[in-house]
Amino acid sequence: AASRQALERAGKTAADVDAVIVACSNLQRPYPAVSIEVQDALGVEGFAYDMNVACSSATFGLQAAVNAVENGAARAVLVVSPEICSAHLNFRDRDSHFIFGDACTAILVERESDVAEGQGFSVVSTRLRTRFSNNIRNNFGFLNRADESGIGKPDKLFVQQGRKVFKEVSPLVAETIQNQLSGLGLKATYLSRMWLHQANLNMNLLIARKLLGRDPQEQEAPVILDEYANTSSAGSIIAFHQYHEDLQSGDLGVICSFGAGYSIGSVVVRRR
Amino acid sequence: AASRQALERAGKTAADVDAVIVACSNLQRPYPAVSIEVQDALGVEGFAYDMNVACSSATFGLQAAVNAVENGAARAVLVVSPEICSAHLNFRDRDSHFIFGDACTAILVERESDVAEGQGFSVVSTRLRTRFSNNIRNNFGFLNRADESGIGKPDKLFVQQGRKVFKEVSPLVAETIQNQLSGLGLKATYLSRMWLHQANLNMNLLIARKLLGRDPQEQEAPVILDEYANTSSAGSIIAFHQYHEDLQSGDLGVICSFGAGYSIGSVVVRRR
Questions:
Q1: Contact status of B166 with chain A (Cβ, < 8 Å)
Q2: With contact defined as beta carbons under 8 Å apart, do A125 and A268 qualify?
Q3: What is the band of A249 on the pLDDT scale with cuts at 50, 70, 90?
Q4: A121-271: CATH architecture
Protein backbone atom coordinates (compact mmCIF):
# COMPACT_ATOMS: atom_id res chain seq x y z
CA ALA A 1 0.00 0.00 0.00
CA ALA A 2 2.83 2.41 0.89
CA SER A 3 4.53 1.68 -2.43
CA ARG A 4 1.36 2.26 -4.43
CA GLN A 5 0.77 5.52 -2.58
CA ALA A 6 4.34 6.68 -3.28
CA LEU A 7 3.91 5.92 -6.99
CA GLU A 8 0.53 7.63 -7.09
CA ARG A 9 1.84 10.78 -5.42
CA ALA A 10 4.71 10.90 -7.89
CA GLY A 11 2.26 10.41 -10.77
CA LYS A 12 4.18 7.32 -11.87
CA THR A 13 3.42 3.66 -12.48
CA ALA A 14 5.39 0.45 -12.00
CA ALA A 15 6.54 0.79 -15.63
CA ASP A 16 8.55 3.90 -14.68
CA VAL A 17 10.48 2.06 -11.96
CA ASP A 18 13.63 -0.03 -12.55
CA ALA A 19 14.48 -1.18 -9.03
CA VAL A 20 13.01 -1.90 -5.60
CA ILE A 21 15.10 -1.77 -2.42
CA VAL A 22 13.58 -3.14 0.77
CA ALA A 23 15.56 -1.47 3.54
CA CYS A 24 14.55 -2.27 7.11
CA SER A 25 15.58 -3.73 10.48
CA ASN A 26 13.17 -6.62 10.41
CA LEU A 27 13.43 -8.84 7.36
CA GLN A 28 10.97 -11.67 7.42
CA ARG A 29 13.20 -14.33 5.84
CA PRO A 30 16.60 -14.68 4.16
CA TYR A 31 15.36 -15.55 0.64
CA PRO A 32 13.90 -15.12 -1.85
CA ALA A 33 14.60 -11.46 -1.02
CA VAL A 34 11.47 -9.73 0.32
CA SER A 35 12.15 -6.90 -2.15
CA ILE A 36 11.72 -9.31 -5.09
CA GLU A 37 8.29 -10.27 -3.78
CA VAL A 38 7.36 -6.57 -3.50
CA GLN A 39 8.73 -5.98 -7.00
CA ASP A 40 6.58 -8.85 -8.28
CA ALA A 41 3.45 -7.62 -6.47
CA LEU A 42 3.86 -4.16 -8.03
CA GLY A 43 4.73 -5.52 -11.48
CA VAL A 44 8.10 -3.77 -11.66
CA GLU A 45 10.68 -4.99 -14.20
CA GLY A 46 14.37 -4.66 -13.39
CA PHE A 47 15.97 -5.62 -10.10
CA ALA A 48 15.45 -5.68 -6.36
CA TYR A 49 17.45 -6.38 -3.23
CA ASP A 50 17.18 -6.25 0.56
CA MET A 51 19.39 -4.22 2.83
CA ASN A 52 19.66 -3.82 6.58
CA VAL A 53 21.40 -1.41 8.83
CA ALA A 54 18.69 -1.38 11.52
CA CYS A 55 16.99 1.97 12.27
CA SER A 56 19.06 3.75 9.63
CA SER A 57 18.03 1.41 6.81
CA ALA A 58 15.69 3.85 5.08
CA THR A 59 18.25 6.67 4.79
CA PHE A 60 21.02 4.24 3.77
CA GLY A 61 18.57 2.87 1.18
CA LEU A 62 17.96 6.44 0.00
CA GLN A 63 21.66 6.92 -0.65
CA ALA A 64 21.90 3.61 -2.52
CA ALA A 65 18.90 4.67 -4.62
CA VAL A 66 20.34 8.13 -5.30
CA ASN A 67 23.64 6.54 -6.36
CA ALA A 68 21.85 4.09 -8.69
CA VAL A 69 19.72 6.81 -10.31
CA GLU A 70 22.57 9.31 -10.71
CA ASN A 71 24.73 6.56 -12.21
CA GLY A 72 22.11 5.49 -14.69
CA ALA A 73 21.73 1.98 -13.23
CA ALA A 74 18.00 2.75 -12.85
CA ARG A 75 15.58 5.47 -13.98
CA ALA A 76 13.73 5.34 -10.68
CA VAL A 77 14.14 3.30 -7.49
CA LEU A 78 11.44 2.56 -4.92
CA VAL A 79 12.83 2.38 -1.36
CA VAL A 80 10.42 0.43 0.86
CA SER A 81 10.78 0.03 4.64
CA PRO A 82 8.33 -2.48 6.14
CA GLU A 83 8.93 -2.62 9.88
CA ILE A 84 7.15 -5.30 11.91
CA CYS A 85 8.85 -4.55 15.20
CA SER A 86 6.30 -6.35 17.39
CA ALA A 87 7.47 -9.81 16.46
CA HIS A 88 10.92 -9.58 17.99
CA LEU A 89 10.12 -7.73 21.18
CA ASN A 90 10.55 -9.16 24.64
CA PHE A 91 7.24 -8.60 26.37
CA ARG A 92 8.87 -9.33 29.73
CA ASP A 93 11.22 -6.37 29.33
CA ARG A 94 9.55 -3.14 30.43
CA ASP A 95 12.37 -1.06 28.93
CA SER A 96 11.67 -2.07 25.37
CA HIS A 97 8.38 -3.66 24.49
CA PHE A 98 5.93 -0.80 24.81
CA ILE A 99 7.89 1.71 22.80
CA PHE A 100 7.62 0.08 19.37
CA GLY A 101 5.10 0.13 16.58
CA ASP A 102 4.66 -1.48 13.14
CA ALA A 103 4.59 0.52 9.90
CA CYS A 104 5.67 0.55 6.28
CA THR A 105 6.96 3.48 4.27
CA ALA A 106 7.96 3.93 0.62
CA ILE A 107 9.89 6.65 -1.22
CA LEU A 108 10.35 6.99 -4.96
CA VAL A 109 13.77 8.28 -6.04
CA GLU A 110 13.73 9.59 -9.62
CA ARG A 111 15.92 11.53 -12.02
CA GLU A 112 15.47 15.27 -11.60
CA SER A 113 14.32 15.49 -15.23
CA ASP A 114 11.47 13.00 -14.65
CA VAL A 115 9.85 14.96 -11.85
CA ALA A 116 7.09 17.46 -12.68
CA GLU A 117 7.84 21.14 -12.05
CA GLY A 118 7.37 22.13 -8.39
CA GLN A 119 6.79 18.53 -7.28
CA GLY A 120 8.81 16.62 -4.72
CA PHE A 121 12.20 17.22 -3.16
CA SER A 122 15.77 17.32 -4.47
CA VAL A 123 18.43 15.41 -2.56
CA VAL A 124 21.14 17.98 -1.83
CA SER A 125 23.53 15.64 -0.03
CA THR A 126 23.70 12.30 1.79
CA ARG A 127 26.03 11.45 4.65
CA LEU A 128 26.34 7.98 6.18
CA ARG A 129 28.34 7.00 9.23
CA THR A 130 28.65 3.85 11.35
CA ARG A 131 30.61 3.05 14.52
CA PHE A 132 30.31 -0.38 16.08
CA SER A 133 28.39 -0.77 19.32
CA ASN A 134 26.56 -3.67 20.97
CA ASN A 135 24.25 -1.42 22.97
CA ILE A 136 21.32 -2.25 20.70
CA ARG A 137 21.39 -5.86 19.63
CA ASN A 138 19.29 -8.77 18.36
CA ASN A 139 21.00 -12.14 18.06
CA PHE A 140 18.14 -13.93 16.35
CA GLY A 141 19.67 -15.80 13.42
CA PHE A 142 20.10 -19.06 11.58
CA LEU A 143 23.34 -19.88 13.39
CA ASN A 144 21.47 -20.19 16.68
CA ARG A 145 20.50 -23.73 15.67
CA ALA A 146 24.10 -24.70 16.29
CA ASP A 147 23.73 -23.94 20.01
CA GLU A 148 20.47 -25.39 21.26
CA SER A 149 21.03 -24.16 24.79
CA GLY A 150 20.54 -20.59 23.58
CA ILE A 151 17.21 -21.10 21.81
CA GLY A 152 14.45 -18.91 23.15
CA LYS A 153 16.83 -16.88 25.35
CA PRO A 154 16.22 -13.12 25.77
CA ASP A 155 19.29 -12.15 23.72
CA LYS A 156 17.49 -13.52 20.63
CA LEU A 157 15.02 -10.67 21.02
CA PHE A 158 15.45 -6.92 20.99
CA VAL A 159 17.84 -5.77 23.74
CA GLN A 160 19.13 -2.27 24.38
CA GLN A 161 21.02 -0.20 26.90
CA GLY A 162 18.78 2.82 26.48
CA ARG A 163 20.69 5.30 28.58
CA LYS A 164 24.05 4.49 27.01
CA VAL A 165 22.57 4.85 23.55
CA PHE A 166 21.05 8.20 24.48
CA LYS A 167 24.35 9.56 25.78
CA GLU A 168 26.57 8.20 23.03
CA VAL A 169 24.41 8.62 19.93
CA SER A 170 22.94 12.09 20.47
CA PRO A 171 26.27 14.00 20.18
CA LEU A 172 27.36 11.80 17.23
CA VAL A 173 24.18 12.68 15.35
CA ALA A 174 24.46 16.42 16.01
CA GLU A 175 28.10 16.33 14.94
CA THR A 176 27.34 14.37 11.75
CA ILE A 177 24.60 16.77 10.63
CA GLN A 178 26.76 19.77 11.61
CA ASN A 179 29.70 18.49 9.52
CA GLN A 180 27.45 17.72 6.59
CA LEU A 181 25.93 21.22 6.67
CA SER A 182 29.35 22.87 7.03
CA GLY A 183 30.53 20.95 3.97
CA LEU A 184 27.60 22.42 2.06
CA GLY A 185 28.28 25.93 3.35
CA LEU A 186 24.99 25.84 5.27
CA LYS A 187 24.03 26.63 8.86
CA ALA A 188 21.55 24.58 10.92
CA THR A 189 19.40 27.69 11.28
CA TYR A 190 18.80 27.62 7.48
CA LEU A 191 16.89 24.34 7.92
CA SER A 192 13.13 24.74 7.86
CA ARG A 193 12.67 21.24 9.24
CA MET A 194 14.46 18.31 10.84
CA TRP A 195 12.76 14.96 10.35
CA LEU A 196 14.69 13.04 12.97
CA HIS A 197 14.58 9.35 13.81
CA GLN A 198 11.58 8.67 16.03
CA ALA A 199 12.84 6.74 19.03
CA ASN A 200 12.82 9.21 21.88
CA LEU A 201 11.47 12.74 22.26
CA ASN A 202 14.26 13.93 24.55
CA MET A 203 16.95 12.63 22.21
CA ASN A 204 15.47 14.64 19.35
CA LEU A 205 15.16 17.76 21.51
CA LEU A 206 18.79 17.42 22.58
CA ILE A 207 20.02 16.99 18.99
CA ALA A 208 17.96 19.92 17.71
CA ARG A 209 19.20 22.05 20.60
CA LYS A 210 22.83 21.20 19.87
CA LEU A 211 22.33 22.13 16.22
CA LEU A 212 20.27 25.29 16.64
CA GLY A 213 21.84 26.62 19.83
CA ARG A 214 18.33 26.99 21.27
CA ASP A 215 15.19 24.91 21.92
CA PRO A 216 13.52 23.91 18.65
CA GLN A 217 9.96 25.02 17.93
CA GLU A 218 7.54 22.14 17.67
CA GLN A 219 7.25 22.34 13.88
CA GLU A 220 11.03 22.48 13.38
CA ALA A 221 11.54 18.90 14.58
CA PRO A 222 8.16 17.17 14.36
CA VAL A 223 7.47 14.14 16.56
CA ILE A 224 5.14 11.31 15.61
CA LEU A 225 5.88 9.04 18.58
CA ASP A 226 2.52 9.75 20.22
CA GLU A 227 0.68 8.25 17.24
CA TYR A 228 3.08 5.68 15.74
CA ALA A 229 5.60 4.89 18.54
CA ASN A 230 9.11 3.82 17.47
CA THR A 231 8.81 2.19 14.05
CA SER A 232 12.56 1.71 13.55
CA SER A 233 13.70 2.80 10.07
CA ALA A 234 10.18 3.93 9.11
CA GLY A 235 10.07 6.66 11.79
CA SER A 236 11.90 9.57 10.18
CA ILE A 237 10.15 8.82 6.88
CA ILE A 238 6.71 8.93 8.52
CA ALA A 239 7.66 12.29 10.09
CA PHE A 240 8.72 13.52 6.64
CA HIS A 241 5.53 12.17 5.07
CA GLN A 242 3.28 13.89 7.64
CA TYR A 243 5.10 17.22 7.89
CA HIS A 244 6.23 18.51 4.51
CA GLU A 245 3.18 19.96 2.76
CA ASP A 246 3.63 23.48 4.15
CA LEU A 247 7.23 23.89 2.95
CA GLN A 248 7.86 26.40 0.16
CA SER A 249 9.99 25.94 -2.93
CA GLY A 250 13.66 26.28 -1.95
CA ASP A 251 13.08 25.37 1.72
CA LEU A 252 15.73 23.07 3.16
CA GLY A 253 15.34 20.16 5.57
CA VAL A 254 17.22 17.15 6.85
CA ILE A 255 15.99 13.57 7.21
CA CYS A 256 18.21 11.88 9.77
CA SER A 257 17.95 8.39 11.20
CA PHE A 258 20.17 6.74 13.78
CA GLY A 259 20.24 3.57 15.79
CA ALA A 260 21.78 0.15 16.28
CA GLY A 261 25.28 -0.18 15.09
CA TYR A 262 25.69 2.74 15.73
CA SER A 263 24.54 3.91 12.34
CA ILE A 264 23.64 7.43 11.27
CA GLY A 265 22.13 8.33 7.90
CA SER A 266 21.54 11.98 7.09
CA VAL A 267 19.89 13.29 3.92
CA VAL A 268 19.63 17.03 3.22
CA VAL A 269 16.71 17.82 0.90
CA ARG A 270 15.36 20.94 -0.81
CA ARG A 271 11.69 21.53 -1.70
CA ARG A 272 11.48 21.82 -5.48
CA ALA B 1 41.10 -12.69 6.60
CA ALA B 2 39.53 -12.28 3.13
CA SER B 3 39.20 -8.53 3.68
CA ARG B 4 42.80 -8.17 4.81
CA GLN B 5 43.98 -10.18 1.80
CA ALA B 6 41.94 -7.99 -0.58
CA LEU B 7 43.44 -4.83 0.93
CA GLU B 8 46.95 -6.28 0.81
CA ARG B 9 46.62 -7.30 -2.85
CA ALA B 10 45.40 -3.81 -3.70
CA GLY B 11 48.30 -2.30 -1.75
CA LYS B 12 45.87 -0.39 0.42
CA THR B 13 45.09 -0.08 4.12
CA ALA B 14 41.90 0.45 6.11
CA ALA B 15 42.61 4.19 5.98
CA ASP B 16 42.01 4.16 2.20
CA VAL B 17 38.52 2.64 2.58
CA ASP B 18 35.33 4.63 3.28
CA ALA B 19 32.70 1.89 3.33
CA VAL B 20 32.15 -1.82 3.98
CA ILE B 21 29.24 -3.75 2.45
CA VAL B 22 28.53 -7.24 3.73
CA ALA B 23 26.56 -8.89 0.93
CA CYS B 24 25.55 -12.52 1.44
CA SER B 25 22.70 -15.04 1.74
CA ASN B 26 23.37 -15.96 5.33
CA LEU B 27 23.42 -13.05 7.73
CA GLN B 28 24.09 -14.12 11.26
CA ARG B 29 21.79 -11.63 13.03
CA PRO B 30 19.60 -8.62 12.24
CA TYR B 31 21.63 -5.97 14.11
CA PRO B 32 24.01 -4.43 14.78
CA ALA B 33 24.76 -4.96 11.08
CA VAL B 34 27.47 -7.59 10.56
CA SER B 35 29.19 -5.15 8.20
CA ILE B 36 29.67 -2.64 11.05
CA GLU B 37 31.44 -5.32 13.08
CA VAL B 38 33.70 -6.09 10.08
CA GLN B 39 34.31 -2.35 9.62
CA ASP B 40 35.27 -2.09 13.30
CA ALA B 41 37.58 -5.14 13.15
CA LEU B 42 39.42 -3.66 10.17
CA GLY B 43 39.54 -0.15 11.63
CA VAL B 44 37.71 1.47 8.72
CA GLU B 45 36.17 4.93 9.20
CA GLY B 46 33.03 5.83 7.24
CA PHE B 47 29.98 3.62 6.91
CA ALA B 48 28.84 0.04 6.50
CA TYR B 49 25.64 -1.85 5.76
CA ASP B 50 24.38 -5.37 5.09
CA MET B 51 22.57 -6.48 1.96
CA ASN B 52 21.01 -9.73 0.84
CA VAL B 53 19.77 -11.03 -2.43
CA ALA B 54 20.84 -14.65 -1.84
CA CYS B 55 23.37 -16.16 -4.28
CA SER B 56 23.60 -12.92 -6.24
CA SER B 57 24.53 -10.80 -3.22
CA ALA B 58 28.19 -10.36 -4.16
CA THR B 59 27.53 -9.03 -7.67
CA PHE B 60 24.67 -6.82 -6.45
CA GLY B 61 27.07 -5.56 -3.77
CA LEU B 62 29.62 -4.87 -6.51
CA GLN B 63 27.14 -2.65 -8.34
CA ALA B 64 26.24 -0.78 -5.14
CA ALA B 65 29.97 -0.26 -4.49
CA VAL B 66 30.64 0.90 -8.05
CA ASN B 67 27.74 3.37 -7.79
CA ALA B 68 29.03 4.72 -4.46
CA VAL B 69 32.59 5.14 -5.74
CA GLU B 70 31.60 6.71 -9.06
CA ASN B 71 29.26 9.07 -7.23
CA GLY B 72 31.88 10.18 -4.75
CA ALA B 73 30.05 8.79 -1.72
CA ALA B 74 33.20 6.77 -0.96
CA ARG B 75 36.80 6.63 -2.20
CA ALA B 76 36.86 2.85 -1.91
CA VAL B 77 34.33 0.23 -0.81
CA LEU B 78 35.10 -3.25 0.50
CA VAL B 79 32.46 -5.83 -0.54
CA VAL B 80 32.61 -8.83 1.81
CA SER B 81 30.60 -12.06 1.36
CA PRO B 82 30.82 -14.40 4.34
CA GLU B 83 28.74 -17.50 3.58
CA ILE B 84 28.14 -20.02 6.34
CA CYS B 85 25.76 -22.22 4.40
CA SER B 86 26.08 -25.27 6.66
CA ALA B 87 24.00 -23.83 9.45
CA HIS B 88 20.72 -23.68 7.55
CA LEU B 89 20.86 -26.94 5.65
CA ASN B 90 18.46 -29.81 6.13
CA PHE B 91 20.64 -32.84 6.65
CA ARG B 92 17.65 -35.13 6.04
CA ASP B 93 17.26 -33.78 2.49
CA ARG B 94 19.59 -35.59 0.09
CA ASP B 95 18.89 -33.03 -2.65
CA SER B 96 20.43 -30.15 -0.83
CA HIS B 97 22.70 -30.78 2.12
CA PHE B 98 25.80 -32.25 0.51
CA ILE B 99 26.19 -29.64 -2.19
CA PHE B 100 27.09 -26.65 -0.01
CA GLY B 101 30.28 -25.25 1.48
CA ASP B 102 31.30 -22.33 3.70
CA ALA B 103 33.60 -19.55 2.51
CA CYS B 104 34.23 -15.81 2.70
CA THR B 105 35.33 -13.51 -0.11
CA ALA B 106 36.22 -9.82 -0.29
CA ILE B 107 36.66 -7.37 -3.16
CA LEU B 108 37.98 -3.83 -3.00
CA VAL B 109 36.24 -1.37 -5.37
CA GLU B 110 38.31 1.79 -5.91
CA ARG B 111 38.40 4.86 -8.11
CA GLU B 112 40.27 4.18 -11.35
CA SER B 113 42.75 6.92 -10.44
CA ASP B 114 43.69 5.22 -7.15
CA VAL B 115 44.69 1.91 -8.74
CA ALA B 116 48.35 1.36 -9.69
CA GLU B 117 49.13 1.04 -13.43
CA GLY B 118 48.44 -2.46 -14.76
CA GLN B 119 46.85 -3.64 -11.50
CA GLY B 120 43.34 -4.98 -11.05
CA PHE B 121 40.28 -4.89 -13.25
CA SER B 122 38.02 -2.13 -14.57
CA VAL B 123 34.26 -2.60 -14.28
CA VAL B 124 32.95 -2.12 -17.83
CA SER B 125 29.27 -2.60 -17.02
CA THR B 126 26.91 -4.07 -14.41
CA ARG B 127 23.50 -5.59 -15.11
CA LEU B 128 21.09 -6.72 -12.39
CA ARG B 129 17.82 -8.52 -12.86
CA THR B 130 15.30 -10.20 -10.55
CA ARG B 131 12.08 -12.15 -11.19
CA PHE B 132 10.15 -13.56 -8.27
CA SER B 133 10.18 -17.32 -7.70
CA ASN B 134 9.67 -19.53 -4.65
CA ASN B 135 11.69 -22.42 -6.08
CA ILE B 136 14.59 -21.66 -3.74
CA ARG B 137 13.37 -20.57 -0.35
CA ASN B 138 14.25 -20.30 3.32
CA ASN B 139 11.50 -19.19 5.71
CA PHE B 140 13.70 -18.89 8.77
CA GLY B 141 12.87 -15.55 10.34
CA PHE B 142 11.84 -13.62 13.41
CA LEU B 143 8.14 -13.76 12.50
CA ASN B 144 8.14 -17.54 12.96
CA ARG B 145 7.75 -16.96 16.70
CA ALA B 146 4.19 -15.90 15.98
CA ASP B 147 3.29 -19.43 14.79
CA GLU B 148 4.72 -21.95 17.21
CA SER B 149 3.37 -24.91 15.25
CA GLY B 150 5.86 -24.13 12.47
CA ILE B 151 9.00 -24.02 14.60
CA GLY B 152 11.64 -26.51 13.52
CA LYS B 153 9.74 -27.46 10.33
CA PRO B 154 11.73 -28.22 7.16
CA ASP B 155 10.55 -25.02 5.39
CA LYS B 156 12.63 -23.03 7.91
CA LEU B 157 15.71 -24.57 6.30
CA PHE B 158 17.06 -24.43 2.77
CA VAL B 159 14.55 -25.86 0.28
CA GLN B 160 14.82 -25.94 -3.50
CA GLN B 161 13.19 -27.41 -6.56
CA GLY B 162 16.50 -28.11 -8.26
CA ARG B 163 15.23 -29.23 -11.65
CA LYS B 164 12.83 -26.30 -12.02
CA VAL B 165 15.59 -23.86 -11.10
CA PHE B 166 17.90 -25.47 -13.65
CA LYS B 167 15.35 -25.20 -16.45
CA GLU B 168 14.10 -21.70 -15.65
CA VAL B 169 17.28 -19.91 -14.59
CA SER B 170 19.78 -21.14 -17.21
CA PRO B 171 18.10 -19.45 -20.22
CA LEU B 172 17.44 -16.27 -18.18
CA VAL B 173 21.14 -16.02 -17.34
CA ALA B 174 22.32 -16.59 -20.91
CA GLU B 175 19.80 -13.99 -22.15
CA THR B 176 20.84 -11.44 -19.51
CA ILE B 177 24.55 -11.71 -20.35
CA GLN B 178 23.77 -11.71 -24.09
CA ASN B 179 21.70 -8.50 -23.76
CA GLN B 180 24.36 -6.86 -21.66
CA LEU B 181 27.09 -7.69 -24.17
CA SER B 182 24.95 -6.53 -27.11
CA GLY B 183 24.39 -3.22 -25.32
CA LEU B 184 28.17 -2.84 -25.11
CA GLY B 185 28.67 -3.81 -28.75
CA LEU B 186 30.47 -6.98 -27.68
CA LYS B 187 30.12 -10.65 -28.62
CA ALA B 188 30.33 -13.53 -26.15
CA THR B 189 33.29 -14.89 -28.12
CA TYR B 190 35.28 -11.76 -27.13
CA LEU B 191 35.17 -12.91 -23.49
CA SER B 192 38.36 -14.54 -22.29
CA ARG B 193 36.62 -15.88 -19.21
CA MET B 194 33.23 -16.44 -17.61
CA TRP B 195 33.31 -16.66 -13.82
CA LEU B 196 29.84 -18.11 -13.36
CA HIS B 197 27.94 -18.80 -10.15
CA GLN B 198 29.11 -22.11 -8.71
CA ALA B 199 26.03 -24.19 -8.05
CA ASN B 200 25.98 -26.82 -10.75
CA LEU B 201 28.47 -27.84 -13.40
CA ASN B 202 25.85 -28.70 -16.02
CA MET B 203 24.08 -25.38 -15.54
CA ASN B 204 27.33 -23.52 -16.24
CA LEU B 205 28.08 -25.67 -19.28
CA LEU B 206 24.59 -25.01 -20.65
CA ILE B 207 24.88 -21.23 -20.13
CA ALA B 208 28.36 -21.09 -21.71
CA ARG B 209 27.14 -23.19 -24.64
CA LYS B 210 24.16 -20.89 -25.22
CA LEU B 211 26.46 -17.87 -25.20
CA LEU B 212 29.33 -19.23 -27.27
CA GLY B 213 27.36 -21.44 -29.65
CA ARG B 214 29.74 -24.30 -28.80
CA ASP B 215 31.07 -26.21 -25.78
CA PRO B 216 33.29 -24.01 -23.62
CA GLN B 217 36.90 -24.97 -23.03
CA GLU B 218 37.66 -25.75 -19.41
CA GLN B 219 39.52 -22.48 -18.78
CA GLU B 220 36.78 -20.36 -20.38
CA ALA B 221 34.30 -21.11 -17.60
CA PRO B 222 36.31 -22.37 -14.63
CA VAL B 223 34.62 -24.56 -12.03
CA ILE B 224 35.60 -24.66 -8.35
CA LEU B 225 32.79 -26.94 -7.16
CA ASP B 226 35.13 -29.92 -6.72
CA GLU B 227 37.13 -28.04 -4.10
CA TYR B 228 34.69 -25.55 -2.52
CA ALA B 229 31.19 -26.91 -3.32
CA ASN B 230 28.35 -24.36 -3.62
CA THR B 231 29.27 -21.40 -1.44
CA SER B 232 26.27 -19.26 -2.44
CA SER B 233 27.27 -15.68 -3.29
CA ALA B 234 30.96 -16.42 -2.68
CA GLY B 235 31.17 -18.94 -5.55
CA SER B 236 31.68 -16.76 -8.63
CA ILE B 237 34.09 -14.55 -6.66
CA ILE B 238 36.20 -17.56 -5.64
CA ALA B 239 36.30 -18.63 -9.31
CA PHE B 240 37.41 -15.10 -10.24
CA HIS B 241 39.99 -15.09 -7.45
CA GLN B 242 41.49 -18.43 -8.52
CA TYR B 243 41.42 -17.93 -12.28
CA HIS B 244 42.48 -14.43 -13.30
CA GLU B 245 46.27 -14.26 -13.04
CA ASP B 246 46.91 -15.41 -16.62
CA LEU B 247 44.71 -12.74 -18.25
CA GLN B 248 46.46 -10.03 -20.28
CA SER B 249 45.82 -6.30 -20.19
CA GLY B 250 42.63 -5.57 -22.17
CA ASP B 251 41.20 -9.08 -21.77
CA LEU B 252 37.48 -9.13 -21.04
CA GLY B 253 35.53 -11.39 -18.71
CA VAL B 254 32.15 -11.61 -17.00
CA ILE B 255 31.41 -12.39 -13.34
CA CYS B 256 27.83 -13.65 -13.20
CA SER B 257 25.90 -14.94 -10.22
CA PHE B 258 22.33 -16.24 -10.11
CA GLY B 259 20.05 -17.90 -7.65
CA ALA B 260 17.11 -17.57 -5.30
CA GLY B 261 14.65 -14.95 -6.20
CA TYR B 262 15.38 -15.42 -9.11
CA SER B 263 18.20 -12.93 -9.09
CA ILE B 264 20.92 -12.46 -11.69
CA GLY B 265 23.90 -10.14 -11.30
CA SER B 266 26.32 -9.78 -14.18
CA VAL B 267 29.51 -7.70 -14.13
CA VAL B 268 31.66 -7.29 -17.24
CA VAL B 269 35.29 -6.53 -16.34
CA ARG B 270 38.45 -5.69 -18.29
CA ARG B 271 42.01 -6.53 -17.16
CA ARG B 272 43.85 -3.25 -16.66
A1: no
A2: yes
A3: very high
A4: 3-Layer(aba) Sandwich (3.40)
